[in-house]
């Protein structure tokens, strides 16, 4: 069996009745990106066969931690509280003269949501993408205040949550994960 990996995928499609392409972030665990195709399709059923990938990343290193996926052993032997958690934050902001909301996503390792929010608000994106009443924010469903911040283990597909766990191991490695950009049909992954 190959090593299991955590993937972060930017999915895109133009669902029926929409005028512009829509996007969402998918997190999944598998041996390869292609092995996640059924889970990506199940994640965004409304996309039908029009779903594609605009960007993806194997999540290996975040904030001085190596991200390791393990098969969940006996759930009763697992500690109830982890010292560090892996969070996904979607920042939204505005720039004068641009008829769109800018977005910036980050992964951060923190012990709790409050510190993850603090880390997100310290980014240059958060500080520089607002003016007047158009204030930078951590996006939630309505673009108000702070809520689109997730512990990644909580938003994994149900089958992945029950089968796997994410371990965060301190490392001296300061390299960053490679980000793969560009339109990629799911059918090209098979």
UniProtKB/TrEMBL annotation:
It holds the Pfam family DUF1543. It comes from Dyadobacter psychrotolerans. The lineage of its organism: Bacteria, Pseudomonadati, Bacteroidota, Cytophagia, Cytophagales. Residues 18-69 form the DUF1543 domain. This is DUF1543 domain-containing protein.
């Amino acid at each position: 069996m190959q090593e299991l990996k955590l993937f972060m995928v930017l999915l895109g499609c133009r669902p029926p009745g929409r005028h512009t392409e829509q996007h969402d972030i998918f997190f999944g665990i598998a041996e390869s990106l292609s092995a996640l195709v059924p889970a990506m399709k199940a994640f965004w059923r409304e996309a039908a066969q029009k779903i594609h990938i605009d960007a993806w990343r194997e999540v290996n290193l975040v904030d001085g931690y190596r991200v390791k996926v393990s098969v969940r052993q006996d759930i009763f032997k697992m500690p109830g509280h982890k010292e560090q958690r892996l969070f996904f934050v979607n920042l939204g902001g505005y720039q004068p003269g641009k008829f769109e909301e800018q977005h910036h996503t980050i992964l951060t390792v923190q012990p709790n949501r409050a510190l993850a929010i603090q880390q997100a608000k310290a980014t240059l994106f958060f500080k520089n993408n607002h003016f007047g009443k158009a204030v930078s924010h951590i996006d939630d469903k309505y673009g108000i205040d702070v809520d689109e911040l997730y512990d990644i283990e909580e938003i994994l597909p149900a089958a992945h949550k029950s089968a796997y766990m994410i371990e965060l191991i301190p490392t001296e490695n300061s390299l960053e994960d490679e980000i793969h950009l560009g339109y990629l049909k799911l059918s090209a992954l098979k």
